[in-house]
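Q&A log
Question type: sequence-to-structure
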Amino acid sequence: MKMIRYCQLTTFVIGSIFFSANTFSQTKNISPAGSRMISSDIFGLFFEDINYAADGGLYAELVQNRSFEYSPTDNKQWQALSFWEYITPGFSYGSLQIETNTPVHPNNPHYAVLNSEHVGTVPQQNNGQPLPSSITTGRPGVGIKNPGFGNIITKKGERFHVAFFAKQLSVQPVDLFVSLQDPKGNILAEQKLTIDKKEWNKYTATLSVTAGHDSTQVVLLATSKGKIALDVISVFPEHTFKNRPNGLRADLAQLLADMKPSFIRFPGGCLVHGDGLGNMYRWKTTIGPIEQRTEQKNIWGYHQTVGLGYYEYFQFCEDIGAKPLPVLPAAVSCQNSGGTWRIGGTGQRAIPLEEMQEYIQEVLDLIEWANGPVTSTWGAKRAAAGHPAPFNLQYVGIGNEDKITPEFEQRFTMINNAVKAKYPNIILVGTSGPFHSGEDFEKGWAVANQLKVDVIDEHYYVQPEWLISNQYRYDKYNRNASKVYLGEYASWGNKLYNAIAEGLYMTGLERNGDVVSMASYAPLLAKDQFTQWKTDMIFFSNSTYYLTPNYYVQKLFSTNAGDHYVDKVIVKNNADSLQAGSCVYDSKTGDIILKLVNAGKQARQFQLNLAAFKKTASVATVTQLSGDADAENSFRSANAVAPVTSTINVSKKFNYESPAMSLTVIRIKTK
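Response status: OK
Response body:
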């Protein structure tokens, strides 16, 4: 992402000058005459924790500030007890404080100490007069409650898994009720536990909801006298994606799986190189038990629990059949660190050269963690987490939209050379800065050419007219230079016109699939009322979501990708910049896939010639996205724009009239 105000710099190391079966699929069917191989990894996804995409979004944790690690560093209004409320129902009293003396783990220093001095009673009357329900409702005790990320939505019959760490600090054990309650204190689900261990111990419970509510709160209530310490208070729905513990929100994860992406780039974005050296995303602090992970501020103005860490990213990629594309800092921070975008982005800081060997080893250790045998140091850590088999990592990105300074170039060169020396088959992706042209773009490409970097990551956010005017951008690229990963791109807007302009541009990516090895729209997710970046693919709330026209265009391309490009199948008016098309062939299925784009206000004719294919079916499947240029979806009208599927009769030569403002995908089987 890039905005003058924000530093969203992201790169990946993805390509290889000599692509093998890593990128190009093995041909099972005979490819048509005159076709050429293109990247079979061309369309994927880019995920960054922006717009509350991870915590409060894709990551299914329901408790906000579960480890009491929020601070003014994240947000000037926050502190360790933010989003927790101290409660004393039934005229009880006690105290609540944050301590750091004996934490669960040094990486997770803060914890809450709850002292239940007196547990009262709930009187029904006062001087013979009934008391209001706000006083008489609920169980007496001393405790804390949490409303989650905005609100927690529960439904009757749902089950939730609760886990937290606690230790007994008083002489006597403490009875603790863990419950889900509505705002008035009515109990929707609960379980009683006894905190009776003098050392930190993990307690678990399963809560079954008897009545749902759209503003449910998590409550921990001590109902006997005593003092306890609490930390890492976690509540997950029983049903996560693939029902994995510490898992992902099922509906959002399924939307991504439905796109059948060839890869997923993570964890950012500007999130990677961070707001200063101390805020860099360090992968080693995001694996292992969640209570041992190092939380930190999010460069986009909130907090990262890193509960969705490298292990979960890799597991999700494996679950949906996408190749992992992790991106690591190039040993420099964001050039806009400290808000220096206001004065021209002079905030880049570099890891000292005397610390570079240690940092380079961190990069090499990631590859061992992902691919090494269980007998290796880091492969053993992967196995201990529950995945003895290698993840088969092929791509590693180094840097993200960085300013190409001498400090960057020196450190990127050191990392590139070290990785290639030890892991020559790993495909590295470099960066060409945050824009489609300019000084950093030219310098980034110069570094790539000098080092023969496998793939270089380009980013740009532009007006839809730019995409239309530059649809032949990659026709002019050197076929023998570094490959291109278009890691972040979008037009400014979520109207149908924006999406169609992007689709028109994507036909050029397919046409140049021998140069453009990968591409991913950005940003991916945005939470309602928690959005820092307004042009996004999927908008969601705690209960629902809506898909943008941009999502549908991306899905139509990614689920209809091929591994061969076939010329001279689509005949159109070359002088018409609002009309574009591409024809690809999927050698695995034997399908011919035509994509026809009309970004104009009038219908347009395409002449289609299938002579390059010996045998074709007479009926084809057609999926079409069309409508008014200004049409867009919203929470109130989630399906104002959506694709429609039908069938048509086809022959070796036929004409197709493409409606105004439309993307049409025609899929034809070969016999």
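Response note: The radius of gyration is 27 Å.
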